[in-house]
Design brief:
The protein is mostly helical. It contains nine helices and two strands, in the order αααααααββαα.
């Protein structure tokens, strides 16, 4: 069984320095708080959610940021880098998947090819309820602040276009179904 304590030790081990560690952890704690709120609502709505997995995997979701920090040319690679680190450290594939698939609401192979993204060409999509909750919370978190869904949709619309904004809206509807049983909160 892997725990939050194990995850924190691994983050410290891979952090380039204390400032980088603190920067990643400030964001991570905001994501964790929001994800646990969503998970609690999903549980109250009758879903079976692995809270301990969410707590632990969120700590690790941005471990690849130490090599590919925000704003770097290949920042989008931090997810695959995180999965690589966890694989090398012997962590289960379920944790690796969180790292690899947490960017946006997933990245499609066609996105990689069309945008010439610096990623191996395949689909990176959240599949489990836990992965989806983590993606949702991560998308709402800008550094240590939780933004509303409209902000996130408009950001995607502005940065990536209407198709991506619609993907985000559809993803938000899926989360709403999980936590309240209807598409809109």
């Amino acid at each position: 069984m892997y725990t939050e304590k194990d995850a924190l030790k691994l983050m410290k081990k891979h952090a380039s320095d204390d400032d980088a560690y603190e920067g990643v952890m400030i964001h991570t704690m905001a994501v964790q708080k929001k994800a646990l709120e969503v998970a609690d609502a999903a549980i109250k709505n009758g879903h079976d959610i692995d809270i301990e997995f969410i707590k632990t995997s969120i700590i690790l979701h941005d471990i690849g940021r130490f090599k590919y920090p925000p704003g770097s040319k290949e920042s989008i690679r931090h997810g695959v880098e995180g999965a690589k680190i966890l694989k090398e450290e012997g962590w289960p594939e379920s944790f690796q998947r969180v790292c690899e698939n947490h960017i946006g609401v997933g990245i499609l192979k066609k996105d990689i090819e069309e945008q010439e993204l610096p990623l191996p060409a395949k689909d990176y999509l959240p599949e489990t309820k836990e992965e989806k909750i983590i993606n949702y919370a991560d998308n709402l978190a800008t550094h240590n602040k939780i933004m509303d869904e409209n902000f996130v949709v408009e950001r995607y619309r502005r940065e990536l276009g209407e198709e991506f904004a619609k993907r985000i809206e559809k993803f938000h509807d899926e989360i709403h179904e999980m936590i309240v049983g209807s598409k809109k909160l």
